[in-house]
Give the backbone structure.
Amino acid sequence: MKIALSVLFAFTLMSGIDKATKQQVSTPVIVNVSAKKKKAKKVYYAKKSKKYHSTKSCRSLKRSKKLYSTSLANAKKKKLKACKICY
């Protein structure tokens, strides 16, 4: 009799836990995606260069006296190509 009661008690306990976990899992999570803005990637180039660089310290920019920075999208619009060393 004691074994039957303890099994019945354990079964009801487990079914209660199962219901609680199902409620937690089935709760929808709403995320506002439009609030997150992507930061534009910044690239660097020299005035007469045909390539853009990911860092100012790229070894192919050593001789350049003046560096300019722009977004990656603008660099592609200017038809600059990626540097093979730093990309």
